[in-house]
Amino acid sequence: MPQYFIPSENIRNGEFFAGPDEANHMVRAARARAGDTIEIFDGKGGRYKAVIKTVADGAVSGSVGEKLPSPEYRTRLTLCFAVVAKPALEEIIEHCTEAGVDAFQPVMASRVQFDLFSDWERRAGRLNQIVVSAAKQCGRGRLPAVRKPEKLDDLLLAGGPAVFAAADGAGPDEALKALAGVPELKLFVGPEGGFTRGEMEFARSKGAAFMNLGLYTLRAESACLEAASAVLTRLG
C-alpha cells in the first residue's frame, strides 16, 4: 500500500492534510480518489492508516485511522562518510535511509576531492527530498537527519563510540562485539584511497574500532551500504 509523507503539523484532531507536492503525487501519479485507504507517516516515527475524503487541485485531506508499527533499530547509527561526487552521494543517502541509518554526516578528510562546504545550502534541499522518497518507499516512519559537513578531526574530538570501515580491521562480528548495547554509534567510511595513516592513528587514539568489509575494494556507495547493514543487523 502506498505511504505518503504528511508533516506532523498537518495531522491533528483525527484529520490529515496533504500539501501541493504530496497531493499532486497522490492524485496524478497514484491516481488516488476519495474513499481510498492509504498509509501516511509524519517523519517523527508516527505511521497511520488513513482514508481520503476530499481531493482537489493541489490538496488532499482525509481521516486518520489506526496507528501502524514504525520499527526502528535500537542503535542510532550516524553514517560519517567522506564526501563523494553527486551520483554516489545521492545513492548513499537513498540506500542507507532504506538500511536504517539514523543520521547522515558528510566528512571532510585529507583525501576528499569534493567540496560540500561552499555548496551545502543548495545541495541540502535535494538530499532531504531523497530521504523522504526513500522513507516512503521502504516504510520508515522516522526521517534520518542530513547534517552539514564536518571535519574528521572535529567529529572524533566530539567523542562517542565509533567504528571505521578499514581493510586491516577485524570481521564485523569481532569488531562490533565490544559495541553491543551502545545507544549511539558513529560509522566512518573513507574516501577513495581511504583515510590517511595519520587519520587512522588519530582515530585509534580516540578508541575507535576497525571493521573489515571483505576481500575486495568497494565503491563508496557500496561500502556505506554494506557497513551500515553490517552494524545494524548485528547491534539491532
Q: What do you see in this structure?
A:
The chain is of the alpha/beta class and 236 residues long. The protein contains seven helices and 13 strands. Strands 7, 8, 9, 10, 11, 12 and 13 form a seven-stranded parallel beta sheet that branches. α2 packs parallel to α3 and α2 runs parallel beside α7. The model has no long low-confidence stretch (mean pLDDT 94).
Q: Over the alpha carbons, how many angstroms does the gyration radius reach?
A: 20 Å
- Average pLDDT works out at 94
Main beta sheet:
7 strands, parallel
Count of alpha and pi helical runs: 7
Low-confidence stretches: none
Could you tell me the strand content as a percent range?
A: 25-35%
Share of helix among residues?
25-40%
The count of β-strands is 13
Identify the overall geometry: elongated
How far is the N terminus from the C terminus?
A: 26 Å
